[in-house]
Amino acid sequence: MTANLFRFLIFTLALVNSTAAQTHDRKVSAAPQITNRNRWYVFNAPDKDFVVEFPTKPKREADDEAPGGTMRSYALYTGSMLFLLSYIDSDYDPMSREGNQLPLTFRREMLDHARERGWTVIRSELLRKNIYEQESWSPIKEHPNSRLHYVERTIIRYGRQYTLTCASLIPEQKVNQDLCRRFFDSFHVIREPQPQ
């Protein structure tokens, strides 16, 4: 469990870093100002296992092959921020402990990996036995002197691994924490997912 989940999360972090850098390089046009008071788009999962709110309607990204299976993602680029939801099914029984709880070594492994990559971790918390959150600054591969700020929440429930990412698309600019918190807190697993 630890190795597969850890590899998936590292894959997700690398994907976010690469996506944010590419988006920055394309000079994303300014989007309307999004605030916590705006009415957000309620996104219902294709198989009705979860619900989450995005500032506006997200777009389905191309599936990626990740360690352990196919990762499905939905992304919203607001001009200065990226809101990303990614998920992948594990091989664990949806009712098993492994399918509903992060490994005890998970936090330490994430911190060790961040240190190896030169990331600066600001915050690393196991919020519940199945929810981990990390806030970091990550160097941009194509621009090593610039960093991107992001906050990520990982949830494992019913054998499915969900990762919600809130990332700045502007180097050296912090994300809007209130918008990230609203995005994260709107996520709810409703029922056991159907294998895809």
How would you sum up this structure, described in words?
It is a single chain. The chain has 196 residues and is an alpha+beta fold. The chain has a single domain, classed as Mog1/PsbP, alpha/beta/alpha sandwich (Protein Transport Mog1p, Chain A, 3-Layer(aba) Sandwich), CATH 3.40.1000.10. The strands form 2 sheets. Strands 3, 4, 5, 6, 7, 8, 9 and 10 form an 8-stranded antiparallel sheet that branches. Strands 1-2-11 form a 3-stranded antiparallel sheet. Strand 9 and strand 10 form a beta hairpin. The chain is globular and about 45 Å long.
How are the secondary structure elements laid out?
Elements lengths: L1 H24 L15 E4 L5 E5 L4 E2 L3 E3 L2 E9 L3 E9 L16 H12 L2 E9 L2 E10 L2 E15 L2 E9 L8 H9 L2 E2 L7
Give a quick set of tags describing it:
globular, 39% strand, alpha+beta, three-stranded antiparallel β-sheet, eight-stranded antiparallel β-sheet, Protein Transport Mog1p, Chain A, 11 strands
At a glance:
The chain is α+β, with helices and mostly antiparallel strands. It contains three helices and eleven strands. The strands form two sheets. Strands 3, 4, 5, 6, 7, 8, 9 and 10 form an eight-stranded antiparallel β-sheet that branches.
